[in-house]
What does this fold into?
Amino acid sequence: VTTEPTIAWRDGALELIDQTRLPAELVSLRLTAVPDVIDAIKRLAVRGAPAIGVAGAYGVALAAAADDPRTDPGAFRAAVAALRSARPTAVNLARMVDRVAAAAEAAAAPGAGTGAAGSPADAALAEAHRVRDEEREASRAMGERGADLVLDLVGRTPVRAMTICNTGGLATVERGTALAVIQTLHERGVLAEAIAMETRPLLQGARLTAWELGRMGAPHRLAVDGAGPFLLARGAADVVLIGADRVAANGDTANKIGSYSLALGAARAGVPFLVVAPESTVDVATASGADIEIEDRGPAEVVAWGGVATAPPGTAAVNPAFDVTPVDLITALVTDRRVVRFDQGHTLT
Ligand code: MRU
It folds into this structure.
């Protein structure tokens, strides 16, 4: 829950809360050029699948303003290609970049000059605003539908919910995905506690989710990632709620590293495990989790924190930013349009 929009378009520039500076400082970046948008996405100044989709959408609007696809289609397409590949795992980025680029290209087509869409840059900006508005509506719908499902599955109140990474307003446009469900439970007066996993190596749970839960006044505790399955075994949570970076056609779900461990722990403990994600994160063109590209962010984030070494010099590290939870460990997927009960044999397609 943020009072400032995570992402805003103001006076020809993309303004973003700089998430690398939280929780110490709430400051915004003002971006006017495509390379700056790419840099912000790569270094996680803006992050979370829906949020990078919206940032990429506005990035295309900046690209169309800088390199008009009518006069320099090569430069425009190169900028679009660079934007769409800034991060590989969340389908929202490539999908929204492609969608806004298609709107700009349609306005650039011969004969389109008199169309209602205006210039390619105008058309791109209008489409980017639509992407933002759709994500805002989606986050509202997911919160309500997910809270209903949690109450149905848990069968008693108040509810204790475990979550990982950050899936709140910072990761989307407004209320979020999994954290929107937790916020809705809190607003309904039925949240006993949220347990936020800290989310190594970049601490999105500690830095961002604990910050958002604090601002919404929701009771919460932070736990180290390794404690998740054990806490579930000891009955510390009634439900696990996660977001998604990509949901494959068979329901396998890529999300922040550590999600799979929670799913295994939840299955063992008999705790419902729910994925909450907008339809914009569902990718039926990807058959299964094995086909999802997982971003490896390199060793630096693992062997140091805040400029201080946490491992001996020269230590090798592996750093997958995401994992894949197989659909058989997922109780249900909640989107802005539907609930898919995998536990009851329902399928996405
Ligand atoms: O690397 P990040 O911080 O972008 O990872 C984000 C996540 O894994 C989120 O859980 C996911 O994008 C869903 S956000 C609503």
In short: Residues 44, 47-50, 90, 165, 167, 171-172, 176-177, 204, 243-245, 255-256, 321 surround MRU (CB under 6 Å). The mean pLDDT is 96. The chain is about 40% helix and 15% strand.
